[in-house]
Design goal:
- There is one protein chain.
- The protein is an alpha/beta fold and 427 residues long.
- Helix content is 46%, strand content 15%.
- The chain has two domains: 4-29 and 219-406, Rossmann fold, CATH 3.40.50; 45-213, Rossmann fold (3-Layer(aba) Sandwich).
- It has helices at 14-21, 25-36, 54-63, 82-92, 96-99, 112-127, 144-157, 174-181, 202-211, 215-229, 238-249, 266-280, 303-308, 347-364, 379-399, 408-423; strands at 4-6, 69-75, 103-107, 131-137, 163-170, 185-189, 255-260, 289-294, 313-320, 368-374.
- The protein has a five-stranded mixed beta sheet with strand order 1-10-9-7-8, sandwiched between helices.
Amino acid sequence: MVLTIHWKDCGFSLKQIRSVASRLERRLKELKKVVEERKYSDDAGSLVVPTDTRHVAAARVFANQCKDAELLVIIGIGGSNLGAVAVQEAVLGKYYNLRSKLEVLYADTVDPNSLHHITNRVKDVIKAGKKVVINAISKSGTTTETIANFEVILEAIGKDKNAFVMVTTDGGTEFEALAKKHTFHTLQVPKHVGGRYSVFTTIGLFPLAVMGVDIERLVEGAHGMLQHCLRMDISSNPALMLAAIAYLQHKKHRVHNTFVFSNDLHGYALWYRQLLAESIGKSPSTGIIPTISVGSTDLHSVGQLDIAGPDLSYYRFVTVTSPVHHVTVPRLQKMCRPIPTVCGKSYRDLLSAIVQGTQTAFRKHKRRFIEIELPDTDEDTIGGLLQAEMISMMLLGHLLKINPFDQPAVEEYKEATRKILASGKIC
């Protein structure tokens, strides 16, 4: 298995966790049936995706046409880009753009300053005769921000032959029809796979393949985890363990803090924040507030509050056993006299000591936490992690008796925005 959950500081006994988990036996059987019958029409149809090789094949065919690209611009928001961000940062590193031949930019919100810089960069690359890949993503094809940004960037590229334009959307949308009319490339997404559950569809796989992520390994990791997460054995099913503990925590601890001890996992934390907020935030009585901390940075900003403030939060520490790169503090001791114990230590050891020190302080103040330990941040590990999180959310929704697949309140803001734009009465 690609992750280990250390649960003994969560505040509940294994007996209590097993008791909650036992209530999910029927739901797990239902989810297993969805996979076995390949029921894309089910709300949980995203579980079929890692078993369906067509998604990887379609993404790979088009990505192979983009190997010489200088710039990739991903136009999408929420579930349409957070999965790609999560995998890119975890697997390739947060500072990927500093060392890669391919530059990756994200156009999500309608911030004029951001779009100004993105369009200027697009124009510069086009002017230099280099290839630009534009990937516009909207399942519905009616996302205000995505349509606006796409139009602006299309104007910037004009009819340049070095622009490769891909539209990813549900089949049968007007967005798809318009893309085909303009001879853009298109990729379809299964209709019943929601945006926040779509990272293993072409929504995530095409841009990640262009970046150089091994999408085959990514999906293999998800598929392997899927097999574990459809079992009733809590010792080998991390999704079952995560869902049961989250359920036990939610009455007293309505704030769930994903505390990542790697800068490269910040994108994953953003992805998980949306997954939890949109899936569970359906009413004042059941909503859970997801927050994010990055260690050790945030220990020096909100650590005092976390350790000694009001006991409102449940913490999920996420750690990596073997980082990609290795750094060691020199033994020269030019500046180490105030803390001589850091000299000669590897950064892995320093961070491990900080994690252990943090957990010691949390225990002293009776803060509830678990640790999700990852062996590394390779494709199969991250694929497995994201798959476990998505299944745990489906199970948590079942325990809370809510639908973890819709987002009706988000649709309210979208509809109101469209009405305001149509009326012309903008303040």
